[in-house]
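hey team, just a heads up i'm posting the complex here instead of the shared drive bc the drive is being weird again. everything in one block, sequence lines first with there labels, then the predicted structure for the whole assembly after. its two chains so it's a bit long, scroll down
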Amino acid sequence: MTASTARPAHATPGHEPTVDVDALTAAMLGPYAELRRGARAVAGDPRFQRIEGLTVAEHRARVLEQLRTLAREGEVLRAFPTALGGRDDHGGSVSRFAELVVADPSLQIKAGVQWGLFASAIMHLGTEAHHENLLPDAMSVDVPGAFAMTETGHGSDVASIGTTATYDPATEEFVIHTPFRAAWKDYLGNAALHGTASVLFAQLITAAPGGPAVNHGVHAFYVPLRDPATGEFLPGIGGEDDGLKGGLNGIDNGRLHFDHVRVPRTNLLNRYGDVAPDGTYSSPISSPGRRFFTMLGTLVQGRVSLDGAAVNACKLALIIAVTYGNERRQFTGGSDTDEMVLLDYGEHQRRLLPLLAETYASTFAHEELLKAFDGVFSGKNDTEETRQDLETLAASLKPTSTWLALRTLQTSREACGGAGFLTENRLTSLYADLDVFATFEGDNTVLLQLVAKRLLTDYGREFAKIDAGGVARYVAGQAASAALHRTPLLRAVQTVADVGDARRSAGQLRDAETQHALLVDRVETMVAEVAQALRPATKAPRAQAADLFNEHQHDLIELARAHAELVQWEAFTAGIARVDDPGTQKVLTWLRDLFGLSVIERNLAWYLIHGRLSAGRARTVTSYLDRLLRRLRPHAQDLVDAFGYGPEHVRATIASGAERARQDEARAYYRAQRASGDAPVSEKQVPSGKIARSSARPAAARSAVDEVPAEATPA
Amino acid sequence: MTASTARPAHATPGHEPTVDVDALTAAMLGPYAELRRGARAVAGDPRFQRIEGLTVAEHRARVLEQLRTLAREGEVLRAFPTALGGRDDHGGSVSRFAELVVADPSLQIKAGVQWGLFASAIMHLGTEAHHENLLPDAMSVDVPGAFAMTETGHGSDVASIGTTATYDPATEEFVIHTPFRAAWKDYLGNAALHGTASVLFAQLITAAPGGPAVNHGVHAFYVPLRDPATGEFLPGIGGEDDGLKGGLNGIDNGRLHFDHVRVPRTNLLNRYGDVAPDGTYSSPISSPGRRFFTMLGTLVQGRVSLDGAAVNACKLALIIAVTYGNERRQFTGGSDTDEMVLLDYGEHQRRLLPLLAETYASTFAHEELLKAFDGVFSGKNDTEETRQDLETLAASLKPTSTWLALRTLQTSREACGGAGFLTENRLTSLYADLDVFATFEGDNTVLLQLVAKRLLTDYGREFAKIDAGGVARYVAGQAASAALHRTPLLRAVQTVADVGDARRSAGQLRDAETQHALLVDRVETMVAEVAQALRPATKAPRAQAADLFNEHQHDLIELARAHAELVQWEAFTAGIARVDDPGTQKVLTWLRDLFGLSVIERNLAWYLIHGRLSAGRARTVTSYLDRLLRRLRPHAQDLVDAFGYGPEHVRATIASGAERARQDEARAYYRAQRASGDAPVSEKQVPSGKIARSSARPAAARSAVDEVPAEATPA
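-- predicted structure starts here --
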């Protein structure tokens, strides 16, 4: 990022490969490069950037204003219909939104609330009249809106929310009601202050003429909240400010409750379920379960967006920590005079470079997610299966990248020491803002369980067809196509049928096929093992089945992690092929190997227990990993520079070259002192016996002190 | 903590052991129980507690005022001489300070700066006249003081600081000078605003009559900073505010620089080194290296204090997460009506209970550290060896517990979902404040290296005496006494000479001897392996030796971690013996086993590679660990209640019983609805065919909507 930064690889010509930074940047920006560069120009504009130290009120007001400016100038409406000024470009839209995190995560998330959730729900769950009447004001932020789904009592379990929308055929209205405190809507952006309307989720209750009241499950309603002129709640509506949060304080999260608030029948966003004037319910999707998940399917956009933003936050963190690590000096190491830069320390490399590798893997994996998302949402590739694949992929990657962001930000913070703790160096604020990424838009743990259930379900369908005696062979031979290849990334992968091969060929851990075989084998085997353990649950009474499932919850989550890591590895490998320059390819291959071997090292016990690696071979995992760290170290600066962020995005004093200037000044001072001969000699150089030895009991030194004046005399 | 919280173990009499919470609390409070209870009364006083949402200026002013009130009423001066109103009680003093974190970490750390660093340095590095003239105002906070050691350019490497103190015999003054920007003092509490004086560390340069100028290394000087009346810097002194930080914003960290500022000769804190009026240097410690480390030895108090505070923060986090996990319900699991509480989920237990076990281990280990600290600082057990043991123990435990605090706070935050992100629930603020604990008062990574170096040095001394052929036998037979038993905790431990035994007896993983043998064996073997790898360094030129050391830096740090975990395990085991109640002992033993097996599981690959556990046996580690989680789950609330903190300390809405009240209200609502027969029936219960099927193409549903009014009609 800074032109002055040393890149040892460039300094030492010879056989050492070099990275073509610009070409790598282009590869990392991917098919949406142009849109991303545009969004980065926006994120680099000080008007959209966070100012630290604002009060909560000031920060909230600033972000609302930024949102309105974005609506006018920021090209943020790409996802919306062309007829309404949009571009019908879903993937491109999300690729741009994920860049806003660089300006201020509060801006990114408030934009997500307004356009990704509130307006998006009107678009995806509503029908033509809703689009015409409601979308324009939502798009322009003339109506800031809340996405009123989560309740104090129910976050992940949306199906169990308590708010009711009971149809009254007499007035052709829905009555929105909060029956108890736990059913208050909670944690909603725009609810505390700015929101004048909401898309509200409630249990839809209606009766066909002469029939009983039926609860048709969760549906979305357009519910106005405040008088735009006064900002006062409309009658029957109340709420609270969620107050100060750990981060994202530019967003006015709040709570809402409703006391028999009436909205017209037509405020039901009725794409997937409708109520006729007489109270008759109808839906194009007969299964209430499938209908519910179809409606919730629009939420996947938020997860795609968070995945992209989390990866971008990793990039910022690593630019800061690697740049500082290449300039900051501490302890002399093997030299008599010069101190070593931090990144030359083995442990510093061990802490930062695997995170760099994982950030690359996540970048490429995010690109695949974006492609799957665009395929489904554009309609170009929208089938039941591709929707499920998209859900699974998003549920795999969002937890992986949001947790990676927290680890990367924290490790980078610590790698920068006290300087990392200063707000001006950004790492602590980014951590605070991204913290909640791990639990909102789908709690990470819950999402990983969904992935595991999907892998199991895929496995189970095939599993049912073969007899028990064939299980072992099946596990080795066929699990891959059943369990894995449903997710879009994995379809093209060659099944590794012979586990024995993987074991033998592990001699070549640097070999891509071997890494792949080891990663695939782990997922396959885990699926088969968990399936076997859970098999009795398929026939047991509900409570017993739930207990069994619960006992294996941790295994399911580990399985989902293993699957996500495989997806990342494959995306990384596919990404390397998109780079032409041989030097860059070589360095990227080392980085991919570092990623793969880090995953394998983390799970080394599993490979040993399952006989996939011998003890001798397992030792070489760590030693080859160490070798990779040393090989990659000279390229670290290039690899973070290739993220393509400029100083206007990084905005951290310690990554601005200030540290290098300080170090150079200090070294010049000592050099000049040595050259002049004026330097005081070290006590160690004084012949022994020349230093007066005061009494061995330190207390005796006291006699030398008479009085200590209270003030210094300045020169 | 809340009386209403369910404790399943108490509810089901039979063979299930029960925890005597009060007795356990007493055991955890340890020998300093009375002092701790006193400090907790202070920490429970709202006057000393953090108010969230204050501006930085307000927070800083509040904490300064709190400090002055503490000086008058808080019994914070126990460590100081009885003659000056203290109690000469070092261990007791730190045991109390560590409780202040519960009120506000800013208060704890500012107290640490004032009394633990500034006043303490006057006491430990100064002599009688300093004590008489300077200590009273430092103790009373009439003189808020900075501890001016760290510079922008040098944190961990104190020996290399750039500030100079050059003696001028003509005026009998030291000239304090900052030669370049990197030598500015930085990150100093009290420097930005409140500090009127400092204890400043600088290179002492003086010449004996007729001799050359000699740099005698880093010494401490009392240097006034500001005019107390105006708050203005004294002439020649300048500085900057460090500005906003990731946390601890109640402390005014800042930077200082000095332009030939003169202080009287007697401002040198001269216990370990003095300068006579004619410029002659004298010291009771002839080796400059040993002198330097002796002076820095006083810093160990800060590490002891941070260790205690970090463990207390873990306790708060776990009280909050476990209490909420016992009340919060989500998803129905195996029941038709009631949702499950979070802590009944296997993964929730997997996330929280091992942290609970580690917090117990850290609590008991901290008690041992406090004992060692008090022994040395009281003079009761102050030898060169016990000082080194204390340093090593502090360097082992401070990194371990401060990292544990971050993991525990973050995991607890995530386990509480969105509620955990609200500032009112404390987890995010505690995380932000404790973040820097990992890198100040000794960077964790640097400290762990010191531990490893100590283990190696101890090993090396013995190693030199035997021939190369004896190495292998020596590793198995004698390493423990050489490498481990120097640290005070480990002296009483029986050496495990036969690794083969450990392997065979691993059949009983729940057996304490087996766990211990496995943990000891790992440390011994790692020491021996690293020593072997580093052996060439002892004879190589400096640069090569440094390279070799650097290549093995990660191994050294892993070794230090393994050592710290062994120390924790042993302290935990010793702690169990101090509890009399058999039920409590049993539960604590399970918890200790959970700790031990978690450590072994984390390092399972190591045990497998080194042939210490067979693959079959390794599998049982995880399954036994799962069994322990299920056994401990009913006791989780008791185990956090036993930390002995009241609502006035916890102060988190979600741990106040509010969640239980909400859940009870919601369940009562549904129960009443079911009983009344008024509940709408679920769509699934409606005979199929009764739901109108709108066109299969969702778009067709659009026809049902005519117009969507912009406002709701309230009831």
